[in-house]
């Protein structure tokens, strides 16, 4: 059955696309919603997180989610690559990430921006690491009322199923946080003190259930297809539009190559920070700021050993503060040396650290599109121009020094392992390419409701809409922003629908 019309078409099935569907359904029960996803349905339950699968099922699901490299088994890390990683040098295996594909046409090396993406029902929402921290006040958006933003973040917690303290009674992690707090808590407000990282987990007697987009969609996954339908293996080639109004979408089956059009009252492009701009560009929607200001949290990794007795089940978090002194967000958690790709002798309890470093949005850092070279979906391919400048380099070095300080606060750095910065883009938190703005002055793509400037019924979603300098995992932030945009659509469209009855 080919769907020919819908009240709302959502391009992309990840966390923000699913949020648009869920909130529109909440506020506009009669809406007919169509969601399209370029990748396949890789799990038995719609939107099920890959971590809830058996090892064999997870491997199969990842192979299905690799877009143009679907079904391709990547070569495992070599000893040479592992030694390079330990020494703080470039490890080429980091560009081979099961479950993802390299979307950037640049050569995947230490100089290229790591443009990874996923293509399966649920998008990155079935592979994410489930961190649910709230952004600091300075990371939030000045032209959105603080109370409205806080309410949206609380709603995001509910949609994601964020658990603020998933492992109470983890004595080792509590001792870790006490040591860190003695150093970092003085002078911090309560919400920025060292704390457990909130995770989208349900903890049961049988283990942990990681939440995917099935948690966001809730009962919608069982709705009749005439009310809510997800089309897998279906790419959107073009948003159809006329005189500032989106009229529908042009779709193509990734299996048969058949193309068709769907009329739509509203279109939401929730196709990630790389492919959202790509779709708008390919549709002839090209505001000046489209694809510009791309930035990603620089990611610094450090292994350390501690005398704190494990297992350290809980993840600890040192939040970013609102002053310039701490533009970092740090996660610290127990590690198992048995998971190293090659045997390493470790004395003491092994701990891993990931330190996100804020990066400034700069208009000259941008996605560059190539209309003459189509990608696997038939859209303009792209490369990413985002060199590191002096400000970035200084923050990165400060981040490395902080990682060493944290290591010595808890114990000692692991001998033979350097403090490393992984290739830019490796955090998968690309931002700014669809940035939100207060006024239509050419520096932004959309308004506070994520509605594209100059359009009355075209919205965008995902990390790309974030306009601020951030260091914090962005998932709750973008789900909150999506909920605001979705509520706006439902309020306006349902009012119109009622008036025409």
UniProtKB/TrEMBL annotation:
Keywords: FAD, Flavoprotein, Oxidoreductase. This is GMC oxidoreductase. The lineage of its organism: Bacteria, Pseudomonadati, Pseudomonadota, Alphaproteobacteria, Rhodobacterales. It comes from Allosediminivita pacifica. Its cofactor is FAD. Residues 228-298 form the Glucose-methanol-choline oxidoreductase N-terminal domain. GO terms for molecular function: flavin adenine dinucleotide binding; oxidoreductase activity, acting on CH-OH group of donors. The keyword Flavoprotein applies. Signal peptide: none annotated. Pfam families: GMC_oxred_C (PF05199), GMC_oxred_N (PF00732). Belongs to the GMC oxidoreductase family. Residues 361-482 form the Glucose-methanol-choline oxidoreductase C-terminal domain.
């Amino acid at each position: 059955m080919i769907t020919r019309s819908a009240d709302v078409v959502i391009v992309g099935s990840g966390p923000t696309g699913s949020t648009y569907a869920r909130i529109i359904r909440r506020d506009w029960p009669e809406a007919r919603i169509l969601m399209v996803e370029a990748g396949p349905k890789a799990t038995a339950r719609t939107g099920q997180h890959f971590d809830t699968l058996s090892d064999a099922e997870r491997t199969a699901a990842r192979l299905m989610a690799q877009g143009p490299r679907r079904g391709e088994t990547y070569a495992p890390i070599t000893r040479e690559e592992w030694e390079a990683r330990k020494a703080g040098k470039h490890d080429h295996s980091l560009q081979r990430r099961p479950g993802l594909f390299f979307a950037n046409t640049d050569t995947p090396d230490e100089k290229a921006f790591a443009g990874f993406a996923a293509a399966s029902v649920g998008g990155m929402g079935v592979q994410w690491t489930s961190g649910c921290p709230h952004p600091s006040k300075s990371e939030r958006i000045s032209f959105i009322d603080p109370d409205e933003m806080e309410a949206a973040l609380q709603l995001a917690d509910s949609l994601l199923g964020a658990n603020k303290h998933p492992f109470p009674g983890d004595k080792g992690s509590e001792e870790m946080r006490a040591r860190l707090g003695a150093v970092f808590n003085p002078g911090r407000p309560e919400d920025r003190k060292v704390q457990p990282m909130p995770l989208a987990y349900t903890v049961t007697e049988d283990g942990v259930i990681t939440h995917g987009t099935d948690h966001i969609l809730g009962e919608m996954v069982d709705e009749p297809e005439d009310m809510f339908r997800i089309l897998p293996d279906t790419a959107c080639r073009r948003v159809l539009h006329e005189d500032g109004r989106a009229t529908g979408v042009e779709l193509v089956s990734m299996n048969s190559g058949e193309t068709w059009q769907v009329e739509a009252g509203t279109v939401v492009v929730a196709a990630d920070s790389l492919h959202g701009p790509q779709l708008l560009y390919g549709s002839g929607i090209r505001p000046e700021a489209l694809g510009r200001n791309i930035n990603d949290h620089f990611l610094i990794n450090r292994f350390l050993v501690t005398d704190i007795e494990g297992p350290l089940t809980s993840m600890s978090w040192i939040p970013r503060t609102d002053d310039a002194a701490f533009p970092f967000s740090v996660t610290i958690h127990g590690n198992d040396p048995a998971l190293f790709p090659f045997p390493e002798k470790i004395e003491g309890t092994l701990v891993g650290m990931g330190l996100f470093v804020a990066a400034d949005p700069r208009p000259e850092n941008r996605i560059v599109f190539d209309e003459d070279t189509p990608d696997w979906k038939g859209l303009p391919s792209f490369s990413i121009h985002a060199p590191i400048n002096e400000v970035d380099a200084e923050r990165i070095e400060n981040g490395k020094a902080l990682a060493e300080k944290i290591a010595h606060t808890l114990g000692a750095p692991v001998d033979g392992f350097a403090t490393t910065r992984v290739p830019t883009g490796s955090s998968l938190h690309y931002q700014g390419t669809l940035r939100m703005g207060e006024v239509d002055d050419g520096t932004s793509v959309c308004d506070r409701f994520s509605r594209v400037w100059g359009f009355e019924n075209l919205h965008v979603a995902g990390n790309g809409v974030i306009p601020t300098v951030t260091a914090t995992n962005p998932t709750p932030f973008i789900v909150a922003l999506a909920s605001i945009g979705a509520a706006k659509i439902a309020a306006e469209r349902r009012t119109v629908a009622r008036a025409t009855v």
